[in-house]
Prior knowledge:
By secondary structure, this protein is α+β, with helices and mostly antiparallel strands. Helix content is 40%, strand content 11%. The longest helix has 18 residues, at 96-113. The two termini are 37 Å apart.
Amino acid sequence: MNQPQYFRGGRQFPSILVLLLSVIAASTSCQSDVLEPPRLATQTASVISTPTVTPTLIFSEAPTPTADSDRDEPSTAEEDNSFNPSITIWINETSDSHEQVLQEMTDTFSEESGIQAEVLLVTPQLLPELVQTAVLSGTLPDLILHPIEFSVGWEEEGILNSEAASAALDLLGRDTFDPAALDILSTGSNHEAVAALPSDGWQQMIVYRSDWFQEQGLEPPDSFERLLLAAETIFQPEGIISGLVVPTDASLATTQQVFEYLATANGCSLVDEQGRVELLHPACLEALEYYRILVNEFSPIGFQTDTSALNAYLSGRTGLIISSPSVLPVLAGLEAGSVPNCPACSTPDYLAKNSGFITRLDGIGDFSEIANFSEIMALGITSSADRQLATKFVEYWFNEGYLPWLSVDPERKVPLRWGTNEDPTLFLDAWGELALRPGSPGIEEIYGTALVEQLQDGIARSSRWGFQDGQGVLMTRIYEELLLAPLLQEMLSGYFTSSQTIVEMYKAVVDTIPDYAFPIEIVPTATPE
């Protein structure tokens, strides 16, 4: 890992489905007799680390005010500092385009407010570690843009200031934000305070080759049954075509997110409102066994990443991936470094015209329920911030700076501040027309109104684990440590069966909860030879 540096400036579906259902039934019926799997694999698993991006510091200096000409005495150093207040903001983005727009935004903010602004661009994988290091060293920034997995937990740890965030929210107008997003970020006994302010987000998508589906007579993969049938039909080992490719690397949050998406669609809850861990429920084992068969039977050998999944789709080596909307400009041929090169790709936008997108998925069995998965970014004011200065930046971010921010990679930034008091849908209406890439049309023109509405609909009402049950703190711990991703990787590598893995997941989650108030529901037995 780079050290941080700082800069300025062919099988038949029925047989597989019957096998899946029979294995699930057998596993579920024998769940109380599950063997305790070996711990060594979990403790010593070696994963391929994804390269991280060096944090970059953007520096905008406020204009120096002119000294009062009537003053006879020279100003002191302390008085001079009062003329140049400053704030620091950490942003979990690292691309050149983000750096450019943030430089422009901070320059404008500093010029208009007289507040010097520094922005540190941090790769998302490094953000939790850097925040914890800053807590220990007393060097927290004033504001942090971060995923909601961390919001409530960081507020409880005293890293984020919910009082300051709530005051800023009231200043902007609560009614101008997506109310469901505010509910997710709510904290305190009356749930009226928020840990941070919801900025933007995206919904996870099942992306599929609609031309292949039409040729094969397949239905859109909006259920476990249809997804499995499609993966099996597309799978051609002799032609090196995978049925489906998803991230499976243990170092990636997306590995955990893909399984969470499938689990919630099958009615599997991580925890209930009382704090009882629910992973031993039959719906969870069903989802895990489905995931294991789907990946191990129809995906490439070896650990996969979001990049390898996208490359397989672009080259025609798979017809199914699960991804964020970040693939949309790539499929339209708008990314110079990632041009579609599938055999049928006669034009750069061929895949944009011949792909379908699913956000809502239904599971299998008695407990399934249609679910979607979303990721939301929130802007939090830290406990060490100057509240007045931080609030001024929050006002700027959600007003003058908001559309410039949303315009960089807009495909994964559905606005969660819908508009202003004067124009309640200003930002929501503008989002679909923002150019996917400089000089290009927007999502609506390229993909149509239906996809714009699909990506917006229910983005903050997704079936995420924990949040709706008031367990945001637990989700912070799980995503800070990527608790489940290594276990998923180990299962796919053959270390554990799905029955053993679900027990390991249960134990790992219980171990993160201080003074767990419920009986441990597993009875350890001898490890199999």
